[in-house]
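Onboarding guide, step 5: your first structure request.
Type a short instruction followed by the sequence, for example:

Predict the 3D structure of this protein.
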Amino acid sequence: MSTDGLTGPVPEEALGGLLRVHGDGRAAFELWKAAIEAGGPDNITLAVIGIGE
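The system replies with structure tokens like these:
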């Protein structure tokens, strides 16, 4: 996963925490929301892909 608008403003620990708590589309929404709340100075585009369990 990598976008300037997400990985710059949102700390890595927060990204991992959101991915552990939320799954599927909800994870993508929560990541986007965290970037917006952190000021997201660039485009915020992301994809969440789950592999296995």
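Each response can be followed by summary notes, for example: The mean pLDDT is 85.
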